[in-house]
Amino acid sequence: MLLLFACSLPGPSGIATSPEASGVRTISPPTQQSPLPTVSPIPIVRAAFPSCRLPYLKGALGDSHMMGGFVQGKAGTWTADPAGGITQSGDFYVTDAKPTLRGSAFSSKDTSAYDLALRRWVPVRREQVRNDGLAYAYEEPFKAKSSDPQKNATRLHVISLANGNDRVIYTGAPRAVMAYEPEGIYVTSVMYYAGEGGSGLWRLNPTTGASTAIPKVPKGWIEAVRRGIAWTDGATIMPRALTRLNLSSGSQETWAYVGDEGWIWFVGLNTIGNPLVVVYPVGESASPGALFVYKTPTVRAAIANVSFQQLGVTDSHGTWLAGPDGIYLLDAKDKLAKVSDVTGGTVAGGCN
């Protein structure tokens, strides 16, 4: 989806210790599917909130101050965490709690998350935190020369949460952190102040900074990286398909192709790693869209007539989705229930 730097426009986004959150390559167009089916009204049940605490960050992306807290209790009510404040300072988000932690606030996708391992808030997206919760990575834009009119280079920091050590493992052309996975830190090339999406994908060794280019990556923002698979919807504003990229073999598959019948918004992965997309019919601006799970590249199942624009967080309970009217939980059988009326923020980690 669209990536804007140095702006305050909100965009879709989304830590427990492990919640499950270029070069242009031409892909042969898939066979046209049958017309987009009309989703018959599927009632969304109201369910009691599970017996856990869900980290939820109040505040829109781009706000100068955000407040972390927890949703819990049968009614799913939100309570602020006194140590949950995150303040923007220039191009950085900084925790109010001491010792202070710093992360990037330069991109429209930058936000914060909750680290269950250390029971504290961190000023980066949950995908940027290592799965054990003990380290995170973020990018720092800067001017390569003091005389340059705008920031045009990146330092990539790796922060050890155990001792506060801050190491720069990359300095060079603009990059954005996509994910901190067990095998390394995935970054993409970006253009500051212009353009959309990313270009290319590299895996950096978090200790040495050694870089490995991932081959045949299609142009576009990488929406998710999980278990060796990356998903992108291409460098378009109204995408019509997803690309599933195997990061080991380089093989690619086109999923969720809707052709001329509509456009899609990627909102995450379900408990077994299948993509969840909201499909919007073309020309029906008043339509709320319909949520689907794709079980194969061309086989989908309708979930409900409901729209989400933030990436979900998947944990042992299912996939948590923040909507405009509350919080929803998609279980392992892809059944959706509304569990809270809390709004005005985003799910910031798994429920524990």
Helices and strands in order, then pairings?
Layout lengths: L44 E2 L7 E5 L6 E8 L4 E13 L2 E4 L6 E3 L8 E3 L4 E3 L12 E8 L10 E8 L5 E7 L2 E7 L2 E6 L9 E6 L6 E3 L8 E5 L2 E4 L9 E5 L5 E4 L6 E8 L5 E7 L8 E5 L5 E5 L8 E3 L2 E6 L2 E5 L5 E5 L4 E3 L5
Parallel strand pairs: 1-27
Antiparallel strand pairs: 2-3, 2-28, 3-4, 4-5, 5-6, 7-8, 9-10, 10-11, 12-13, 13-14, 14-15, 16-17, 17-18, 18-19, 20-21, 21-22, 22-23, 24-25, 25-26, 26-27
Which keywords apply here?
mainly beta, five-stranded mixed beta sheet, Methylamine Dehydrogenase, Chain H, 0% helix, six-stranded antiparallel beta sheet, globular, disordered N terminus, 352 residues
Describe this structure in words.
This protein is mainly beta and 352 residues long. It has one domain (45-347): 7 Propeller (Methylamine Dehydrogenase, Chain H). 0% of the residues lie in helices and 43% in strands. The protein has no helices and 28 strands. It has strands spanning 45-46, 54-58, 65-72, 77-89, 92-95, 102-104, 113-115, 120-122, 135-142, 153-160, 166-172, 175-181, 184-189, 199-204, 211-213, 222-226, 229-232, 242-246, 252-255, 262-269, 275-281, 290-294, 300-304, 313-315, 318-323, 326-330, 336-340, 345-347. Strand 20 (262-269) and strand 21 (275-281) form a beta hairpin. It is globular and about 60 Å long. The two termini are 30 Å apart.
